[in-house]
User: Fold these one by one.
Assistant:
Number 1:
Amino acid sequence: MATATRDAYGKALAELGAENQDVVVLDADLSGSTKTAAFAKEFPQRFFNVGIAESDLIGTAAGLAASGKIPFASTFAVFAAGRAYDQIRASVAYPNLNVKIAATHAGLTVGEDGATHQMNEDIALMRALPNMTVVVPADGVEAAAATRAVARHRGPVYLRLGRPAVPDIHDESYVFDLLKAPVLREGEDVALFACGYMVHVTLEAADMLAEQGVSAAVINVHTVKPLDTDTVCRYARRCRRVVTAEEHSIIGGLGGAIAEVLAEEVPAPMVRIGVRDTFGESGKPAALLEKYGLTAKAVFAGAMKLMP
Amino acid sequence: MEDYSKLKAIAGRLRRHIINMVAAANSGHPGGSLSAVEIMTALYFKLMNIDVAQPRWPERDIFVLSKGHATPVYYAALAERGFFSPEELTSFRAVNSRLQGHPDREKTPGVDMTTGSLGQGLSAANGMALGAKLDGQHQRWIYVLLGDGELQEGQVWEAAMTAAHYALDNVIAFVDWNGLQIDGEVSRVMNVACIKDKFAAFNWHVQEINGHDFGEIFAAVERAKEAKGRPSVIIARTIKGKGVSFMENQAGWHGKAPGQEQALQALKELEVE
């Protein structure tokens, strides 16, 4: 099975709406794409479309949170984290308001719309904000579980969702813990830390490494902030070599976060797989991932570079 | 004619607090605080249904200071109303103070919304107005104070659309139309005229008043409350620096603290008044 994380979010959100009257949803003219339309259809009284006005989207959500609601505000990642950055900073993060920014179409896999719509810097932007929690689900099961978890969590959250379908990694028994990065595969030689779209890609890379006799641990860092530093340090210590993989710039995202921690706690040779300080371009998602080096082959090569 | 002597006395105290706090901090925004004194006095000493013992009482009326730099008048009003002691006002803008340079709902009792980056307050007020409507609280009023220069921020007009689209007749916005911003006259920096026509075109209920006249403020709010199905804006003509001769209509006093001599002179003038 394969599901887009945005689809799983939309479905979970509609379920959540039935369970919790305080959940309200806002969108900025993209409800069909962000998948908030399902909630809108079932709970029109609790759905607010503000039109193509992302600053107002975030500001209105802040006001709803201040009056005790649990607002989920959705638009594309580039418009949420980018265009409305100051609104997120001043009206949400600083006052520590309970707003869930569920941003879809993050990263290169937006595809044909090109660089203006491919947000590869949002994890870095959101991670730098005090009070903010940053969650990047790897598959549909995790996206649904994360939607429920962030609704329970009190405080601002940036939930990063993708456009394309991704293979299911987790089964329905999966228990999502916001503070714990699950170890998907044990290994001794190299620790592969991934988030979002790159988790299933990294599992593939681990298979390729196994064929070469390299035992790779795979850790799904679904929450980039607060980072599960215990797990990160434990696996860096055990494996002595580290690769990070994310559908995001290598500057300031998952690779940046892990590098910061390990440089102080467990210095280890490291390779970061991600977009290398460049904008994207139009193209099929698969072609873009290939061109910009976000493939299992690239993660495999990164790990092999670290082997003696 | 109704006697507003009590409110005028409070307004006088707020003006003196403004001078004292800005002088003590040697930092802050006196001009746009002095222009909003009567509006704030009207809100906190007559109009708003609030409880100082429970600053977050869920059924209270709400105020959002969208022009967040006017904290001197805001804190002066909150202190005089009893949310904290007027003695605390001298800690304004100092390290470890609850009285931040711009409003902080997490730090200051009575502050309903954090603001400071201009243009964001009306969106937040709309969110609170939507929240009140969802909760069936039709008797709660959401007040917001905008600056005239602030109307240059595009988000204000995004929010103006939202308020009208969702028929937020529980929103009552004031524009403190003092005509000056940091770089000079609003009409020269970036003309926002005609403010009335702009809000009318956005389908708001629009009134224009003298923002230093209590009778006009109360009458306008009364009419605003009766305007069903539409948000209301009260465009209040004011004088920046009102009450202090050398500050009146001077853009230079937007964000500058008076020196000791100047503060004494200002306080003397306000005493006479």
Number 2:
Amino acid sequence: MGWNLRREALVTKFIDLTLNGISSGAIYAAVALALVLIWRATRIVNFAQGAMLMITTFIASAVINSSGSYIVGFIVALLSGLVFGAIVERVLIRPVENAPPLNPVILTLGLYTLLVAIAGMIWGNTPRSFPAAFSLRGYTVGGTTLLFTPNDTFIVLIVIAVAAGLALFFRATTLGLQMRASAFAPEVAKLLGVRVGRMFTLGWALASLVGSLAGVLVAPSTFLGPNSFDPILISGFVAAVLGGLDSPPGAVIGGLILGLALSYVSGYEGSALVPLAALVILFLVLMIRPSGLFSTTRERRV
Amino acid sequence: MSLNRVRGVFAAHTILRSLLIVALAGLALWIISLQISAYNDLQLATGAYYFAALAGLTVLAGLSGQISLGHGALMAIGAYTVALLIGNEGWAVIPALVASAVVTGLVGIPVGAAASRLRGPYLAGATLAFAVGLPALADKFPKTFGGENGLSINPSVPPASLGANFPLERWEAWIACAGALVVLFVLYNVIHSGIGRSLRAVRDDEIAASLSGLHVGRIQTGAFTLSAACAGLGGGLLTVVLQLAQPGAFPLQLSLALLTGVVLGGLGSLTGAVWGAALLTLLPNWTNDLANSFSLSNQVSHNMPLAIYGIVLIVAMLAWPSGIQGGVIAIGNWLRGMWSRRAGRHPQQRGLDVA
């Protein structure tokens, strides 16, 4: 009898961790998608992504506080992300797009640093709470309460919807085709009349929108402060590298794998080890399959 | 004629030249440390440990073309090594500092081996993950590393021969400056040796370098190891100066500040590392004064240095990628050109490094 109870507890814990892994994996997938979209468009890893989504989440928080409506704050966050991404590309990134690869890396890190400092100046360095879209009480199944909440369902569904929407956009619309062409062969695309610069701006804007979505989704569980999203950026980067950095579906799958792996590590070994586990996974992937788990070709820029 | 011969000897022998530079720098630092107040001696010590880490980072970035955002974490390794050895094992300061460089160098070998297979943004991301992930160890093993509060050590007292009233800060400044001079000596010789040339060859064209028989991976791993050892010594000196090693002293911002220092000074330039160390040491004071005189809130003044680092990184990449030292060299060349044109001479050609 006792054995059965223990086994049941173990199974419940495993289910809890799996479901939580899927929900946090969805958020990693969103951040990874943001990084991948920018990498595809401009061959730049946007290290400022974590700080950009932090700013849009602060904006959402301010709007929610003053208007009292979650949905208004949510929409404002996404729109400000869209505009923010476009401005950053147009003003800061465009001049270094053809510079040596180290320059955009340092530039986005500089932007990260500046945004964190600005957020600290305006909103202070003490993390604050952020409301969730739906209830944070777990579902009850057959008498046991799971850790998985209606809000987690919302997270998973909306990330799936965004990923599907992006896939549809890239595959089925002319604009998406133009963006893919600009990323794949900028010169040829230019000759065929595609406004390549505009496509890059649009890529950054879309990426920033997806990033700001991730910020609003994750803030209820991490709290909201200037440095709250550093681990999310790292996880998003690891997820993107898992998926090959070049493929949106890879980013989603990478996010889910990472979410599950980190959830098991956190549940069975303690949450202190999560950043280290992400580091280990990243190094393993980079050592064994540097081009990601799902790529078929190897590439190296010379 | 004899002056020219002396010059020739120094041009031909890097070791002699570096010893001369170190001796002159040491003399200057010694005189300065005697003239200034105890508080400024502390600043000098701070600048010295920043210099050790910055010099290591700038040689890595400028010579082998690798970027590391993990040097703040590497400093933490050196800092905790010194804190554990002095605090728990009762080691003397100098062997503990040597150990901090050796231990961090050893940690640098696997990290460098992994890093040598990575390029550009992948390397930046991996070292960023290293900087964010490593401090978690202090939380995981609170008994060993003292958790959030960290480990504190007793100050290393100046020897009695210096007199009873010799300020502790000046003694710490001497230790830190001695460490910085060792780093300067080693790195100067590495830059001007065959190893330095191999590193530059690997940086400029990996394929050509490997076709010329250079082991690209091994050379890059070596550069990372050396750079890590310098950062570790910098961290060890930090512990000696502050008498404390705690996780809060090594946030991601420290790695970004170090990056700002080397970018501002100019990648690959040891003189640039001096500029960077001066910036990192003085900036927090300046912004504090500025904030006080404009009576800005704490919230603003605390974040001011960080904001300036960010602006420096952005502006440097957009407008002035060669940094202060590059700018100084450009102005120097321009002045020299003006002078020789006015005197009706051709600009003097710089000696080739063929020794």
